[in-house]
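Demo today. Your pick:
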Amino acid sequence: MHLESEVDASIALLTVTGRWDRALWQRTTERLQQCLAEHPEALIVDLTGLDDPTGASAPTWVAARQTADALAPSVQLALCIPPELPLADRMQRLGSRTHLPIYARVRQARVAIASRLPLTERLTLTLGPDPESPSLARNLISDACLAWGRVALLHPSRSVMSELVNNAIEHAGTEMTVAVSLRGAGIHLSVADSVDDLPQPLKMTRVRRGLPLDERGRGLQVVSALAVAWGSLPTRTGKVVWATLQPPLETERRQPRNDAPRLPPNRRNEGPTEPR
């Protein structure tokens, strides 16, 4: 089983190979849940190398489609199955009822999905592992939030993007592609570099008397605190680390005094009254 993503984490590709049995079903289900939790714009599942002569895996793909449709915004899901495989015939019959698109090759799926993706606002920037790169990435976030009316997300998004870029400079040290795009009411940030080692959050070290503070591990903790979701995916050239931020929920308005619940007419309020 192999998973990779586009550099902006918009389209993920999951390749499932081997004989379909209970163990592979369990691993596939877990990985599908992980992929959908990453909330890409689209997920392509390549079943070219899956050994499933009876089509027993079909309910798994139908359930994945239902899960993808239930997300907000929904995730486009497509299968790649060569037409000569028995699974292709069964999925074609099921797909006609569930609107699950099926393609013979991954390239066909990529082209078709790209044509159906909404015209999402997206800004990208290529940066080197330089000291001024975090500042340039933060400026990109400011431009995007102001242009798209996401002012409430400006400061937290700048902090998250700064941490992602600093993390790429420290641990990858390669040229990177930063991107920011609209994702429903929120925004989606991503930083892609050329190193395939996925980030691992570090525990903050305890304060030691007489020694300077060690802030290693602070970056991804900041990302986790400010983003509603974040993660990392391998790409063909390295990895992409992403984060999604949503605006804060509006606080409930105070109930007007005239709409406050009244006591029944047969009961008196013995408490003190406010001066009028």
